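Sample 3 of the quickstart, ligand 3-hydroxybutanoyl-coenzyme A:
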Amino acid sequence: MTEAIGYERVGDIAVLAAQNPPVNALGHAVRQGLVDGIAKATADGAKAVLIYGEGSTFFAGADIREFGQTPKEPHLPDVCNAIEAAPMIVVSALHGTALGGGMEIALSTHYRIAVPKARMGLPEVNLGLIPGATGTQRLPRLIGVEKAIDIVTSGRQLGARDLLAMGVIDKIADGSPREIGLAYAQELLDAAAPRRPVSEMPAPEPIDFDAAYEATLKKGRGLLAPAYGVRAVQAACEKPFAEGVAYERSLFRELMETDQRQGMIHAFFSERQVSKLPELKGVDPRPLAAIGVIGGGTMGAGIATAALLSGLNVVLVEMSPEAAAAAKDRVSGNLSGALKRGRIDQAKFEHLTETALTPTTDFGDLKDVDLVVEAVFENMDVKKEVFGKLDAVCKPGAVLASNTSYLDIDEIAASTSRPADVIGLHFFSPAHVMKLLEVVVADKTAPDVMATGFDLGKKLGKVSVRAGVCDGFIGNRILSKYRTAADHMILDGASPYAIDKAITDFGFAMGPFAVADLAGLDIGYMTRKRLAPTRDPRERVSTYADKLVEAGHKGQKTGKGYYDYAAGSRAAAPNPEVMELIEAERAELGITPRDFTEAEIVRRYMAAMVNEGAKVVGEGIARRPLDVDMTFLFGYGFPRYRGGPLKWADMEGLPALLADIKEYAKEDPYFWQPAPLLEQLVAEGRTFDDLNKEAA
Ligand code: 3HC
Ligand code: NAI
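Result:
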């Protein structure tokens, strides 16, 4: 026996208790312990075996940290089969989250009981994999193909009630997993219940697997794993159990070798790493119960909604009673979405809109709040005036935050008497939906103010990334570079539509021009005007987009932008005026347009993103490459299975990417200045991920 599995006899029952904190991952010692435990129970003459997990959960899956290393025997499918093949009844008692390999172990036992709050699922697709330890063969035998495909391809977790209704588990009971498991095993022994191996159940009825495969592939936007999951379930219908298991394993191994698996696992760990910063160690956040939001427009209303849904009281300050009423309507509109989806009930809706939310025009109402997020117009003078008022009314120790997209937080902080309390909290639109929060730390921001920013992010269910002060912080600064690269390609011959197609084919949720239409073209317009006075004369600037806005086309909100949104439809056709403006500009500049392949579009677009990402890390605006990656995954629709721009760059190979940037620089040396950090990594033969590891 290994230490990871405790063994004990309770009467006729041998008890195998997993002891591998924090989540009882099925690492080598656990797998070996389970096989040894079954052998010992057999040698002991036990009449039943109970398997459960000590601590917070049943097995939460294979040990992801072992992926990529040579797997050590016993392999998980063999462990599952050894459990099922035990000569006595085997019972599992579930609590916490029986995920992936954990669910597969449970399916290999003969009977399953769970506490009411237990959850189960096969989340392997979220790691770019499929279940690799008999799950795709046992689950369809137990619950049929359609439900099994849903669970395997979605990766979603199911609660105990649903699991019971589907027949995945046999019973729900209150108590500790040990207590309920022992009682259930005894009950089964008393009733002389037989062994019940799922693998011996009849093969499930087939469906149209080709159609299911195609639909799943399409839905995955390039992610292979869910579609492979369909094929694995198909094998459960068409092959004997052992052959199905071998086929499942071969698909699992194939996926294990892909970049997609690497990208997804990078995302899994980075998501957990992103809020772990040395600066935050041992620093307690300030208390947070009530917050203020200044400005109830698009962003302010979204931020207020997110805060209310997380249980915070919100004082929402607007300029006039009419604007305050409109802001309240916006928040109510957002919350009615949550009501419709069943996230809150009517009583909660009324409580949030009528009691927890205080719309007002009086800054004095902010005197008791712990933190304020300013979301007024993007104008430095307006922001300074607001911060002056906040400085006068807020209690000592209140955190004063700005949601500015681009403006200098140091300058805003300097306009108050308490710059240490000032921070940037940059939400993304719609703020109650988008997961990203950039916590922008200014020169004088106090450590516990930064900790409070992260704490707010956690309370709101956001992924918070630390950013330093610069124009656009991490995300928008990088965005402005790859957008410029796209504009340059347009001047040289690509169309916005070809670029959008290439970028969505790459896996982004939307292309940059469709995104611009959604956000409003006036935003980019105003940014370009703001930056114009300080623009370097060497910069290559296009003007067709300005002309589009000046012609009144601001995107979806005006019905036309790059696309034509006839009658409010989102399924838009290209707006013909766009190509006319572009062609006119090319003619004016004497450019003969050339063809761009999809691959070249992606390469240049990504090279610009990676190069600026490397600058952002090199300058310390982002502390680590993974901060850039998480910004893009959670704020910019970057395909998760590619890990993030810098993880993508590592997998593409940094030397080749740098060589391409140098090649592009021959045409436009001002725009394509290689990032010093990228040059350094290539010279030293290192990767961005090496920097992540050094910072861990
Ligand atoms: N392997 C290794 N480490 C794991 C792990 C796993 N399967 N699951 C979680 N951890 C680690 C986390 O990295 C974290 O480590 P840290 O403290 O050093 O950052 C720690 O355990 C706690 O995890 P969380 O912070 O995520 O804790 P939560 O309580 O919020 O969530 C959880 C717990 C729901 C279990 C969540 O961690 C989770 O979803 N884990 C992944 C589960 C999963 O994907 N399982 C399938 C694995 S693949 C598989 O089983 C293949 C098989 O089919 C062959
Ligand atoms: P908006 O124009 O929709 O809303 C601004 C609101 O602020 C208006 O309702 C206005 O009445 C109110 N306001 C203006 N001055 C005020 C004052 N002195 N006191 C009280 N209320 C005042 O603007 P939006 O889009 O919500 O943007 C707000 C801020 O958020 C800007 O700084 C913007 O850069 C930033 N931001 C915007 C994003 C977006 O996608 N729209 C994304 C992230 C940040």
